[in-house]
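Whiteboard transcription, Tuesday session. T.W. wrote the structure tokens on the left side:
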């Protein structure tokens, strides 16, 4: 199969390229090498893939990229919360605008194959919560007054009582709470609309917290795993917001790459001929942000045997980021049932490997 991987020089995209090439597929990559994530061409590019260096928002670049491909794996995007709302035009342009150009180019060649989109758990906003009195509820945006007071957990919107977090499923209402989240949901809508009109198929993989080799670092757009890992590598304590109790599902990039390949190739069979829709890509085993910080410090090179009383243990600094949510972790059951995907790399194994992995950019 001839597969286009957009963003294929990046963190997740390059892992997908490696797996597709290893499986014998022909791979074309288009990547702009966004300066917020890259310091020039990385040295890990797979020599068996072909590369086009260009901005996918340019329709001519998009037309060249889609020529002759059988399937599309759309990973190109700006990620993370960014600096502030001043990033809005960049996020909308690189995420929604580039997706629009890609789909326009596919439309011109009447492409009716499968498109796999890198989406994100951020489309849910807060995760799923249950009130003892009112059952499953959707809490609103956390109160700044309560956040300032160190009261971080959402409350029941009906009785203001405590809530229990549960695994979110793909049929949960979406509630994007920052610019990045809004663009990811719009990308899902655009890809779904294209597939319906052209009788193709689409899969949106809602990644949970992805970590692993080749992550970018020292950038406002890096994920928390990269920020913590870089601090530990420098011999500095990771600084943990809120109280560290935020629960997430940390999934290794090699598992995410495998999920993409399965999504590109999956055949639903006679009982489920169209696999189109959204799928959580997660382990199903949530951990706290503090758990991750502690695991990375413990596994950092040269740190074996240090106790949690060590001065380089993670430091809880309180505070919060507007747009962050408290708990969001997922049920991976749909991906297991329909795509055959189950995460294989456990938290302890993955964090131990990640603590010494090579990231993009120099520590500073």
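and on the right, the sequence the group agreed on:
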């Amino acid at each position: 199969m001839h597969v286009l991987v957009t963003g294929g020089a990046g963190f997740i995209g390059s892992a997908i390229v490696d797996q597709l090439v290893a499986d014998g597929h022909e791979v074309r990559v288009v990547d702009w090498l966004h300066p917020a994530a890259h310091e020039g061409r990385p040295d890990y590019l797979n020599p068996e893939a072909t590369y086009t260096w260009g901005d996918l928002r340019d329709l001519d670049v998009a037309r060249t990229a889609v020529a002759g491909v059988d399937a599309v794996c759309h990973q190109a995007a700006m990620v993370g919360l960014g600096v502030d709302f001043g990033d809005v035009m960049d996020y909308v342009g690189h995420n929604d605008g580039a997706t629009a150009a890609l789909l326009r180019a596919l439309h011109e060649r009447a492409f009716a194959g499968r498109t796999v989109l890198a989406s994100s758990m951020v489309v849910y906003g807060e995760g799923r919560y249950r009130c003892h009195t009112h059952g499953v509820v959707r809490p609103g945006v956390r109160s700044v007054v309560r956040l300032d007071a160190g009261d971080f957990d959402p409350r029941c919107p009906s009785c203001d009582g405590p809530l229990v977090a549960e695994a979110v499923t793909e049929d949960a209402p979406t509630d994007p709470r920052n610019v990045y989240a809004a663009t990811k949901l719009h990308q899902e809508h655009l890809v779904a609309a294209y597939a319906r009109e052209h009788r193709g198929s689409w899969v949106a993989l809602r990644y949970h917290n992805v970590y692993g080799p080749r992550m970018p670092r020292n950038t406002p757009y890096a994920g928390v795993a990269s920020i913590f890992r870089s601090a530990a590598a420098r011999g500095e304590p990771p600084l943990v917001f809120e109280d560290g109790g935020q629960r997430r599902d940390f999934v290794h990039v090699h598992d995410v790459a495998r999920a993409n390949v399965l999504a590109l190739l999956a055949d639903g069979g006679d009982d489920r001929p169209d696999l189109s829709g959204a799928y959580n890509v997660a382990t199903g085993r949530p951990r706290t942000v503090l758990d991750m910080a502690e695991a990375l410090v413990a596994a950092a090179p040269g740190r074996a045997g240090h106790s949690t009383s060590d001065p380089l243990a993670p430091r809880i600094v309180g505070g919060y980021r507007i747009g962050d949510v408290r708990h969001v972790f997922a049920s991976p059951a749909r991906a297991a049932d329909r795509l055959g995907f189950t995460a294989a790399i456990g938290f302890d194994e993955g964090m131990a490997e990640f603590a010494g992995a090579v990231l993009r950019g120099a520590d500073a």
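Someone added at the bottom: The chain has ten helices and 16 strands.
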